[in-house]
Automatic annotation (TrEMBL):
Organism: Aramus guarauna
Keyword Transmembrane included in the entry's annotation: yes
Gene Ontology MF terms in the entry: G protein-coupled receptor activity
Name of the molecule in the record: OPN4 protein
PANTHER family per the UniProt record, alphabetical: OPSIN
Transmembrane is among the record's keywords: yes
Membrane topology: Multi-pass membrane protein
Alphabetically ordered keywords of this record: G-protein coupled receptor, Membrane, Receptor, Transducer, Transmembrane, Transmembrane helix
Stretches that traverse the bilayer: 99-127
Subcellular locations according to the entry: Membrane
GO annotation, cellular component aspect: membrane
Length: 137
């Protein structure tokens, strides 16, 4: 069972959600920047102004992560089904909770994952096309 009070449960769940979303946001930004630098070098140079190291343009990721979830009061947290930890209350008891869960899934999981998949697919395609061009010469 959860050993602490509801306030600690809420803090624990909030931190889990926030750090998970920040991690996925950082990976999404990194894959997008890598895609720009490899597939569209002219556009990829704009990220160099954000970093002294052109191969590691990660300062944009924390800025996007900070803006990802500014309204934590709207969330409902509680014990997980087994009761050993806390997380978002996934069993939607209201219309707002259902909308929140759907928005969380679509905008914070599905779209970032699709963007990462598309970015790395474009990188692989660009590398494959470049390798064929080099073989022909």
């Amino acid at each position: 069972r959860w050993l602490f009070n509801q306030a600690v449960c809420t803090l624990y769940a909030f931190c889990g959600v926030l750090f998970g979303l920040c991690s996925l946001t950082s990976l999404t930004v990194l894959s997008t920047v890598c895609c720009l630098k490899v597939c569209y070098p002219a556009y990829g140079r704009c990220w160099d102004a954000l970093s002294d190291r052109s191969s590691c343009p990660t300062p944009a990721a924390p800025a996007m992560s900070r803006g990802a979830w500014p309204h934590r009061q709207c969330w409902s947290y509680g014990p997980e089904p087994y009761g050993t930890a806390c997380c978002i209350t996934w069993k939607a008891s209201s219309r707002e909770a259902t909308i929140y869960i759907l928005a969380l899934f679509i905008f914070c999981y599905l779209l970032p994952c699709l963007l990462i998949l598309v970015s790395y697919s474009l990188i692989l395609w660009t590398v494959r096309v470049s390798r064929r061009a080099i073989r022909q010469h």
